[in-house]
């Protein structure tokens, strides 16, 4: 799988392409759009989508009352806001889930600090609760990983805020096809390897760009720790990633927006499949992401 890496220094972008054909087998269809090469991929039919959007009842048990939601799914102030001195204390691999697919491990994944996952902030999926911190409250970040172009994973307002706060100090890693978008938003070593690894999903940001940009997971390989960020994915045979790059110290694996299963199975894993990914990765520990933040489909419990 190819990846693009950019650093916003000197208002220019450096492209770094890596092809992991043995692992990913990424390919384009006859119309130049990226495809999923696994037999487990299936996009919902028009009849499925119509039933889901119009006829299906939402049996999710996510609380609707703010009081109940605050009790069942409280948003806690992160440790680096409560106690900034803790950043100076020696520690192993520290992870903070900031909601949805945004995870902080000195590397930030799919940052979204906006109230809505939309190109308009007065409509579209709204957060159940506000983000646990602002971009300005974040500690030092070395890199940002983007997994795909959907609005709940690639948020223009958050990208602009991160660039304002950190500027040329940040390295950005995006799948192929998103570099031009990033260049328009961001004016513009370490012995750690960033590998753009596969996921089973799709991409879309406008009415006419279906699968024009690639989607991905990310494997971050350091001298002492290995971190896997799944992004958005259905379960597929790509989790041979664990045999190639594992074992991982930490995995960030999605569990939400998974019902109804006949509609969502190809593109979103459920909790049981997330456990299987954890095992496939040979991960020592994993954190659940992509849940309890936006109402994107149906999911059970919080």
Automatic annotation (TrEMBL):
GO terms for biological process: N-acylethanolamine metabolic process; N-acylphosphatidylethanolamine metabolic process; phospholipid catabolic process. SUPFAM superfamilies: Metallo-hydrolase/oxidoreductase (SSF56281). One of its GO terms (cellular component) is cytoplasm. It catalyses: N-dodecanoyl-1,2-di-(9Z-octadecenoyl)-sn-glycero-3-phosphoethanolamine + H2O = N-dodecanoylethanolamine + 1,2-di-(9Z-octadecenoyl)-sn-glycero-3-phosphate + H(+); N-tetradecanoyl-1,2-di-(9Z-octadecenoyl)-sn-glycero-3-phosphoethanolamine + H2O = N-tetradecanoylethanolamine + 1,2-di-(9Z-octadecenoyl)-sn-glycero-3-phosphate + H(+); N-hexanoyl-1-hexadecanoyl-2-(9Z,12Z-octadecadienoyl)-sn-glycero-3-phosphoethanolamine + H2O = N-hexanoyl ethanolamine + 1-hexadecanoyl-2-(9Z,12Z-octadecadienoyl)-sn-glycero-3-phosphate + H(+); N-octanoyl-1-hexadecanoyl-2-(9Z,12Z-octadecadienoyl)-sn-glycero-3-phosphoethanolamine + H2O = N-octanoyl ethanolamine + 1-hexadecanoyl-2-(9Z,12Z-octadecadienoyl)-sn-glycero-3-phosphate + H(+). Deoxycholate binds at residues 204, 208, 295. It is an enzyme of class 3 (hydrolase). Residues 179-291 form the Metallo-beta-lactamase domain. Its EC number is 3.1.4.54. It comes from the Eukaryota. The keyword Lipid metabolism applies. An N-acyl-1,2-diacyl-sn-glycero-3-phosphoethanolamine binds at residues 151, 268. The keyword Methyltransferase does not apply. One of its GO terms (molecular function) is N-acylphosphatidylethanolamine-specific phospholipase D activity. InterPro entries: Metallo-B-lactamas, NAPE-PLD, RibonucZ/Hydroxyglut_hydro. Keywords: Lipid degradation, Lipid metabolism, Phospholipid degradation, Phospholipid metabolism. It holds the Pfam family Lactamase_B_2. Gene3D superfamilies: Ribonuclease Z/Hydroxyacylglutathione hydrolase-like (3.60.15.10). Belongs to the NAPE-PLD family. D-type phospholipase that hydrolyzes N-acyl-phosphatidylethanolamines (NAPEs) to produce bioactive N-acylethanolamines/fatty acid ethanolamides (NAEs/FAEs) and phosphatidic acid. Cleaves the terminal phosphodiester bond of diacyl- and alkenylacyl-NAPEs, primarily playing a role in the generation of long-chain saturated and monounsaturated NAEs in the brain. May control NAPE homeostasis in dopaminergic neuron membranes and regulate neuron survival, partly through RAC1 activation. PANTHER family: N-ACYL-PHOSPHATIDYLETHANOLAMINE-HYDROLYZING PHOSPHOLIPASE D. Homodimer. Bile acids promote the assembly of inactive monomers into an active dimer and enable catalysis. This is N-acyl-phosphatidylethanolamine-hydrolyzing phospholipase D.
């Amino acid at each position: 799988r190819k990846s693009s890496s950019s650093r916003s220094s000197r208002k220019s972008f450096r492209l770094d392409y890596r092809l992991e054909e043995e692992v990913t087998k990424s390919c384009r269809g006859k119309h130049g759009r990226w495809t999923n090469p696994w037999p487990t991929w299936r996009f919902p039919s028009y009849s499925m989508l119509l039933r889901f959007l119009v006829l299906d009842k939402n049996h999710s048990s996510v609380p609707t009352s703010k009081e109940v939601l605050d009790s069942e799914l409280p948003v806690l102030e992160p440790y680096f806001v409560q106690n900034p001195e803790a950043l100076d204390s020696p520690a192993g691999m520290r992870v903070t889930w900031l909601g949805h697919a945004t995870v902080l491990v000195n590397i930030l994944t799919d940052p979204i600090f906006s109230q809505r996952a939309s190109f308009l902030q007065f409509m579209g999926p709204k957060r159940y609760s506000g983000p646990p911190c602002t971009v300005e409250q974040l500690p030092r970040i070395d890199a940002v990983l983007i997994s795909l172009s959907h609005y709940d994973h690639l948020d223009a307002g958050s990208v602009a805020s991160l660039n304002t706060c950190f500027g040329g100090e940040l390295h950005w890693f995006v799948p192929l096809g998103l570099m031009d978008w990033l260049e328009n938003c961001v004016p513009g070593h370490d012995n750690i390897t960033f590998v753009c690894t596969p996921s089973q999903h799709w991409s879309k940001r406008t009415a006419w760009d279906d699968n024009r940009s690639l989607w991905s997971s990310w494997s971050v390989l350091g001298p002492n720790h290995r971190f896997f960020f799944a992004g958005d994915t259905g379960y597929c045979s790509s989790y041979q990633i664990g045999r190639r790059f594992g074992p991982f110290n930490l995995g960030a694996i999605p569990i939400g927006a998974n019902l109804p299963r006949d509609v969502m199975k190809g593109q979103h894993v459920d909790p049981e499949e997330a456990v299987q990914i954890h095992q496939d990765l040979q991960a020592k520990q994993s954190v659940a992401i992509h849940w309890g933040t936006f109402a994107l489909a149906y999911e059970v419990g919080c």
